[in-house]
What we know:
Helix 8 (126-153) runs parallel beside helix 16 (393-410), helix 14 packs antiparallel against helix 15 and helix 33 (883-911) packs antiparallel against helix 34 (927-946). 47% of the residues lie in helices and 13% in strands. A hairpin with a 5-residue loop joins strand 18 (569-573) and strand 19 (579-581). The protein is of the alpha+beta class. Strands 11, 12, 15, 16, 17, 18, 19, 20 and 21 form a nine-stranded mixed β-sheet that branches. Strands 9-27-26-25-10-22-24-23 form an eight-stranded mixed β-sheet, sandwiched between helices. Strands 3, 4, 5, 6, 7 and 8 form a six-stranded antiparallel β-sheet that branches. Residues 154-267 form the P-type ATPase A domain. This is Calcium-transporting ATPase. Its EC number is 7.2.2.10. One of its GO terms (cellular component) is plasma membrane.
Amino acid sequence: MTNNAADHHPGNSVAEGSHEGDFGCSLVDLRTLMELRSGEAVARINDTYGGVQNICKRLKTSPVEGLSGNPADLEKRRQVFGQNFIPPKKAKTFLQLVWEALQDVTTDHPGNCSHNLPGPGEAQAGWIEGAAILFSVIIEKQFRGLQSRIEQEQKFTVMPQGAVIQIPVAEIVVGDIAQIKYGDLLPSDGILIQGNDLKIDESSLTGESDHVRNQKLTVNICSPWLMFSLPLGASFPWLGTHVMEGSGRMLVTAVGINSQTGIIFTLLGAGEGEEEKKVKKGKKAGAPENRNKAKTQDGVALEIQPLKSQEGCLLRGSGASLQVPLASHLSPPLGLIMSAITVIILVLYFVIDTFAVQRRPWLAECTPIYIQYFVKFFIIGVTVLVVAVPEGLPLAVTISLAYSVKKMMKDNNLVRHLDACETMGNATAICSDKTGTLTMNRMTVVQAYVGDTHYRQIPDPEAILPKVLDLIVNSVAINSAYTSKILPPEKEGGLPRQVGNKTECSLLGFVLDLKQDYQAVRNEVPEEKLYKVYTFNSVRKSMSTVLKNSDGSFRMYSKGASEIILRKCTKILDKNGDLRVFKVKDRDEMVKKVIEPMACQGLRTICLAFRDFPADAEPNWDSENEIMSDLACITVVGIEDPVRPEVPEAILKCQRAGITVRMVTGDNINTARAIATKCGILLPGEDFLCLEGKEFNRLIRNEKGEVEQEQLDKVWPKLRVLARSSPTDKHTLVKGIIDSTVGERRQVVAVTGDGTNDGPALKKADVGFAMGIAGTDVAKEASDIILTDDNFTSIVKAVMWGRNVYDSISKFLQFQLTVNVVAVIVAFTGACITQDSPLKAVQMLWVNLIMDTFASLALATEPPSESLLLRRPYGRNKPLISRTMMKNILGHAVYQLTIIFTLLFAGERFFDIDSGRNAPLHSPPSEHYTIVFNTFVMMQLFNEINARKIHGERNVFDAIFRNPIFCTVVLGTFAAQILIVEFGGKPFSSSGLTLSQWLWCIFIGVGELLWGQLICSVPTSHLKFLKEAGHGTTKEDIPEEDLPEDMDEIDHAEMELRRGQILWFRGLNRIQTQMDVVYTFQTGASSLQGALRRQPSIVSQHHDVKHVSSPTHVALSSVNSTPTTSAAAAAASPTLMPHGRLPF
């Protein structure tokens, strides 16, 4: 376990070359060593190499200082031992895919030819389908960028030249000394050369849930996903294990395809052809431009590959889950029935008219003409079917998710599972950590209790006795991770940089404030001299380090939560620096006078203690309860972690949006309550619960210790703060909220976590957020979204984007279904009456392109706005098509059908042109039908602008220029329509139009905007006959108490009507009040009481106005104020409006 720094190789200056002989171990030697098991491995290390120290020498590295960082040396190691990434399975070439497609029996069958014959003009439109496919490929590249970002985010800590830095896992080379710590996923094979209280989760290999811990005087072997610690031996297993506890250093011995994980993936087909390309690879692998070309890196291979498959499943699954209610109820029955009826009516009408009414005989020479008519009828039927199917919905989902994910990266949300993007929009509860998420994670010691004195600020070093000062310095310097450091500021005048654990950094800063040097102590006591380390975990809530003195005695330094450490203290340092007895009553008094005042100020309290063990008998270090007792308290410090300035506003937005924020922290309950109050989680006068973990478990568990959902349902609705909680408590709370049947709909829960033990809660939650800075690799692997800045405000942005995804899809549906309804009815009715579809097949394909590809691109890329946070979350089964959307769809369909049928049957008289109805077969395009087609497209273009608002908002141009994609699509479609009409000719069945005709077409299209304003004026609640569509088996509405009466969705028309009624009644009431006042002055004070009695009604009307108008910032009373005081204040100024404005 202990290694002497003097034994390491003095340097590593490897000359350039390509011979493995430059190193004392070849690639084959190391691979062979990695394949051995148990005693054989240890015997090989000792017999062949002379121990781990000699392996370091052969690999020309230092177990203490690592590699030199020389670029030539790193390049050499990559050439000899390989790069640390596992290439994906070789993809098939384009020609191979073409050849396989040609082998498909469905393309060989002669009968298929008849179904693929192009109709009139269809051959010229073949580019549309190909362009749509290419566009889909471009969209797919969005997810490639996501995967590349995740790969680049995966980093690991190594020690070149003794410095501790983080590098991408792809840059790790054989010979690197890697630091491993709690929560790490191991990125390469290696040998553990130093460890502190290491515990490894190997359940994925052995099936046993017990963690394997390293033992003294054993050789420890690490693999990319598992590290074993076995007496006198080790094995080299693989796949998905991680460090559960402790820390250490590891010598990297195999990377990439030569690691145990790489060998397995090679057997599965990854990296085929690598051996054949080894020579070429050796020349190019180390080039800087090639470093980032790794498709899948070792260490994240198993994290990324499931992501790829999940993306594929998600795109299909999301499309399916969104499409099934519509496609199954609208597309196949309606589209297929309408198409079949169209063909049947056309055929019957033609046959009856030709052979029964006109009594024409069937002539053999006329058979080809009749067949052409029947083919024409069939094409019209297919056209009706095509426009009836909203097949653009999956593309809209894909674009919306891809666009949102890309933009969320800029908002510090790295999405790992795409479904989490939309799910977050429906979140009803967020269980958030405190440290780093709600606070700045910039910890500083601001108070201290030393020698019976409570210092309200950092004491002067002269005020502390030298022997006590030495105890403080040694305790902090030694009993902290040596990776925690205070570095000089990057910019002059800036704050010192905190590297590592922030709590430990605050204690190190405390030492520096006392004008002491912690690094000198660490140089005197290097990490190798630490005899025993009890690392911090969620169970201990403390850390202890044991040193062996020269006389054989031992000293243990401990630090941890103040109430936990003080409970184990029996002595304390007095003002003279001597130990005195520390009784229970002394502890209670200290808690009351020191710890609770600190905690109430939002300070985290940490206690430092020590214990000496005699040299006569070595204690049993595995008996922690005995070791962690009889401690002597040195000091208690109060650590400040300021609330992020933007967090209170973010939590207020969540509360407005119907999301309950709960704080789940391991801190003292008083500290948690103070921080929660500053954040706005706890509000004055609110009936909330603030519990500690023990009390929480007592309330929800029965006599057998089992969680009872019924008991939990009584606790969680009012719970706002859970302090002194364990990861198990967090998982229990999350599971209980999700499984609860309280309320009409299931809660959608988001959870933040950073530790390894937070994994179960992150997995159980509907959306798990891992901390990108403070989070462990295990937490990130279990999460759905990674917060790259560890900031709560980023969660609020995720909510906005999630709701925006839902609204974007709804906007697209509103637009597409309007086009569907109109196009189907026009094609069906027109074909049945005129024996020809007013919209030709190629024109329908163009319309289909507009309403599918272009519309999904334009409407699915709308940026989110703050107004999304002004509504309650939708339920899981909330219909995609709300009643307001149904009103818009039917309302615009009525306008468009009226215009189209008017132009179809009377347009030739209005424009004084020849009629296009009943034209003979293969007749040239007519102006009449071109005007019908052009007007139809113009109405769709302007209706696309209407579709930007789905809740009845009047201003459809609001923030339109924030979405350049929308503007580009609309203007580009308009320009393309001009070209099609003027130059499309016979392929597009169009004829050039005059300027006057163009202006009329545009004018009718603009009428869509005016008609939309008329539709917005009709309250949805008055249209009782409208039904929702696209919902699941159960309907979940917005809670009635949170909306105006009888409203189950946002309806701005209804809100405007209510606002008008309220203002009207307010006006009448004020006039009556003023008349009473005038009458009072004329006749006396008898009527004054009547005027005053009407004041409460004014107050209630004022509250009604606040209820329906957009929320305003409300000044909250202080914590000490009571509801009675607030009511009195309201009564004193009943007509005062928000922001101090008068109501007149």
